[in-house]
Amino acid sequence: MGESDRGARPFSGIRVAEFGRGHAAAYCGKLFADFGAEVVKVEPPGGDPDRRLWPPFADVGGGAKESALFAWLNTNKASIIADPDDAERLGEIAGAADVLIDGRHGAGWNAGPSGHAALRAAFPHLHIVSLSWFGESGPYRDYAGADAVVRALAGCVRQVGEYGKAPIVQPQSQAYLPGALSAFSAVVASLIADSPGGRKFEVSLQEANACEPEFQAAVTVAMAAVEQRWGLNRFFPVFPCGIYPTKDGWLGVTAFSNDQWRGFCDMLGLKATHANPEFATAPQRFMLADAVDAQIAPALMQRTAREWSLEGLRRRVPLVAIPSMADLLASPAHRAHGAFGRVRIGEATFEAPVAPQHLNATPPAHDGAAPLAGAHTKTWRPAPRRQRIGKDGGLPLAGVRIVDLTMGWAGPLATRQLADLGAEVIKVESRVYPDWWRGGDYTEAALADQLHEKALYFQFVNRNKTGITLDLTRPEGADLLKQLVRTADAVIENYAQDVLPRFGLDYAGLVRERADLVMVSMPPYGANTDWAELRGYGSTLEHGSGLPGVTGFEGAPPTMNHVAYGDPIGGLNACAAMLTALLHRKRTGKGQFVDLSQIECLFPLVAPWIIEQSVTGKVGPRLGNRHPVFVPHGVFPCDGDDAWIVIAVTDDRAWAALCEVTGRSDLASDAALATVAGRRAAEDVIEAAIAAWTKTQSADEAMEALQASGVAAGVARGFHELMLYEPQLTARGYWQDVPRVHLDFTMQPSPAFREDGEPYPIRNPAPTLGQSTREVLGRILGVTAADLDRLEAEQVIGEAPIPMAERRPRSSAVLHEAAAGGGD
Predict the structure, then answer these.
(1) What's the distance, CA 420 to chain centroid?
(2) 110 contacts: CB under 8 Å, gap ≥ 6
(3) Of 165, 246, 415, 655, which is least packed with CB atoms within 10 Å of its CB?
(4) Any idea what DSSP says for residue 757?
(5) CB proximity list for 531: less than 8 A, separation 6 or greater
(6) pLDDT computed for residue 431 by the predictor
(7) How is the chain split among helix, strand and coil, in percent rounded to 5?
(8) What is residue 221's predicted lDDT score, i.e. its pLDDT?
(9) What is the pairing mode between strands 592-595 and 78-81?
């Protein structure tokens, strides 16, 4: 789509001002800009320091070099230079906008005439969202932040790696994305509401990242499991789910379901291994992982990673050859799907990921130009904003109805976000095979114990929703769904590509029921690609994204991050895509289909390395826990059992402060260490000195001492700490008490976006199976009580799973199997 098509994009005519700096604010603004908004980036005199900070650097002309990563984060924006203390100029820019994205990290929140309070008083129409490391309140409010520090305090670091060794942290460009997507979704929802008064949101990057380890945190708490690092590429509590060497290349393996384990063993010629009762379940195999590896690892050396991945595709076993950045950029499937576009800044051009929210009628800009600093300072002119006529108050998506056909994690997380924002989300399950995140045991004994209502992670992602049951393989069940769609604004699904068309429930079928329907589909690798039928899980998507190949230490195997990135990141992107399409529908009356490739949702996390490959033709060595810009940077041992702290020295002032806190005046006075280059040459010596001090401190004591001096540092929190003791989350009311039948643990995490300083309340716990079927079908469709009784007798609807022994041979198992294969 060229610049001439810009008027057709969803946000055409919307004006956005972007203050401050940082990847999170920049990417949030990028999404608005790439979908057609007029985004004005305000930079200080001399330009945003990030232009000169983040490698790789591209030659923009005249011998000048600028960060190519910065350019990608700022495509299609205008740049204005303004003094941060010039409140009149900042007010002029903010007042001309519909939205203010504020990345000033504290200094400009509420103080003075350019603070939020003053701006809201002067410009009541303005929607404001602030993005900061830890939010605008709580004991960490003024803490210094860095990507790895925030992720450590969000529970994303401590479990990665081998027990007895330091946890492994991906040091850069991971924390920003959940925050940016959360902020974007909150603001777009508020634009959909179109209330006369603007709304004030805040997003804490710590809270935004805390959604990533929710599954494992829930499992750990529910099982009362001992927390530890189980080893490289060991994903608790299932196995095999890791990365293995082959005859040529590394292979990502995900084979934890019964069918996948059988197919995997058959593929390797290991039928005896499959028949071994000690290896019968994924948790059993996890606890005996070394014994299982002793059998499967040699077998995998017989063929190449590519050969195994093709064989896995044939057998429907999720196997992925771990790609390099060059492989990703050259992939015919990704290129055919439009995953990469051209970025231009000055005289430099390179390739980078395209925003993955692929709205078929109004896609994001494929290519883009980033401005040089101040390029629009002289030409930009403010313009008055229109008056809005909507209603004040209430949740932004009140009145929006969404039919939810998703299962697992990614899809339900997307609809959780939408429900948290006020949408009426109607979750549709089958009695034969409910959402597989409820569990898979439907024996009489399991049903008597209500096991399908006790999975804590299911409760996390399905709160605030209404739950009904329909057997969509039955004509009457499919017809009832079509009737429901006629009353809905949108549908979202994550089945395998060939399933819903069989029942006339794909977009082509459902748009006949409602012409302005928005429908989001979440295939792991995009629709209509060579990999469209490949099963996808969070692990599979992480494997295929190339992220393991740039994580960990040089010479070690490609390293997984152990938080199933693909699921939460896919869910957050699906929510953003849905809201973008809904806003376009509100403004134009036109619905559309959204093809969301979940693997492309992960490409922004590997953007620095994709861009490095494009700009320089290669990717540098892996850095382990070190950082390409900040020195020192790492994970250090503290006093206590398996206690660790992440420390990031982000500038020379922080280096001097670190030396003072640790009592190393000798290092502070060493002129050779006064610069990043000098410190990098002595990194081993510096890290040893830091570790000698941290070992004498508890992790919290070390963090508090360092933060008091302005050094970015954060405890590597464990899951129990995250859920039961984390001072910032506790102080901000992040965990809400939401009792639910069949559960003892009643705490629920808040949404990452909060309005006017308060988290959105969790209105309802996750529904029990079919809890509202009768109410919904009666209220919305007018189905009579007599017909509801008949439908239940015929097992089209109901409030309990059908026991295994009573299931029809060719029932809706096809839907369950396909949904599990179509993305978690």
Answers:
(1) 16
(2) 116, 117, 136
(3) 165
(4) T
(5) 313, 333, 524, 525
(6) 94
(7) 40, 15, 45
(8) 82
(9) unpaired
Band the pLDDT of 5: cuts 50, 70, 90.
very low
Asked if pLDDT for residue 762 goes beyond 80, the answer is yes
Name the percent of the chain lying above pLDDT 90.
Answer: 83
Q: Three-class SS of residue 755?
A: strand
* Whether the predicted pLDDT of 811 surpasses 60: no
Closest CA to 496 of 598, 426, 382, 591: 598
**CB of 338 within 8 A of CB of 40?**
no
Residue type, 541: L
Question: 39 near 28, Cβ under 8 Å?
Answer: no
| Amino acid type, 409 | W
> If we measure between CA atoms, which residue out of 156, 176, 202 comes closest to residue 751?
202
Question: Is cis: bond before 237, omega within 30 of 0?
Answer: yes
Return the pLDDT at 813. Answer: 47
Beta strands in 588-721 (DSSP E): 592-595, 633-637, 644-648, 712-715
Taking only the tens place, the pLDDT of each residue in 501-519 is 999 999 999 999 999 999 9
**What is the per-residue pLDDT for 90?**
94
The angle, 0 to 180 degrees and rounded to 10, between the axes of the packed helices 699-708 and 652-661 is 130
Candidates 625, 616, 767, 781; CA nearest to 690 is: 625
Per DSSP, the three-state class of 245 is: strand
Reported confidence tier of residue 806, pLDDT bands at 50, 70, 90? confident
Residue 807: pLDDT above 90?
A: no
Distance CA 197, CA 644 (A): 46
Q: How many CB atoms lie within 10 A of CB 376?
A: 16
For residue 222, give every residue at least 6 positions away whose Cβ sits within 8 Å of its Cβ, in sequence order, or none.
Answer: 454, 455, 456, 745
Q: Residue 172 to residues 358, 502, 568, 622: CA-CA distances in angstroms? A: 26, 44, 18, 12
Backbone angles phi, psi at 174, to 5 degrees: -115, -40
- Using DSSP's 3-state secondary structure scheme, residue 749 falls into strand
Structure tokens given for 741: 């039948």
Radius of gyration of the chain (CA): 26
Q: What is the DSSP letter of 335?
A: H
Mean pLDDT to the nearest integer, 108-132: 89
Alpha-carbon distance values, 104 to 84, 116, 146 (Å) = 10, 11, 14
Give the C-alpha separation, 438 to 455, whole Å: 6
Predicted local distance difference test score (pLDDT) of residue 499? 86
User: What confidence tier does 1 reach under pLDDT thresholds 50, 70, 90?
Assistant: very low
651 DSSP 8-state letter: S
- Residue partners of 691: CB distance under 8 A and separation at least 6: 636, 637
Structure confidence by residue, pLDDT tens digits, 604-640: 999 999 999 999 999 999 999 999 999 999 999 999 9
Dihedral pair phi/psi, residue 524, rounded to 5°: -60, -40
Chain-centre distance for alpha carbon 466: 24
Lowest model confidence (mean pLDDT) among 42-46, 244-248, 389-393, 740-744: 389-393
What is the amino acid identity at position 775?
Answer: E
Q: Are 631 and 384 in contact (CB under 8 A)?
A: no
Helix (H, G, I), strand (E, B) or coil at 59: strand
User: Can you tell me the distance from the alpha carbon of 231 to that of 290, in angstroms, rounded to the nearest whole number?
Assistant: 10
- Biggest CA–CA distance in the chain, Å, is 86
Confidence at residue 479, expressed as pLDDT on a 0 to 100 scale: 97
Q: 203 in helix, strand or coil?
A: strand
Q: What's the half-sphere exposure (Cβ side, CA atoms, 13 Å) at 765?
A: 23
Q: Is 16 helix (H, G, I), strand (E, B) or coil?
A: strand
Answer whether residue 97 shows pLDDT above 60: yes
Strand ranges for 157-271 from DSSP E: 200-204, 241-245, 250-254
Q: How far is CA 323 from the centre of its chain?
A: 21
CA distance 416 to 575: 9
Return the SS3 of 592: strand
Query: In which band, very low, low, confident or very high, does the pLDDT at 198 lie, cut at 50, 70 and 90?
Result: very high
C-alpha–C-alpha distance, residues 717 and 29, integer Å: 30
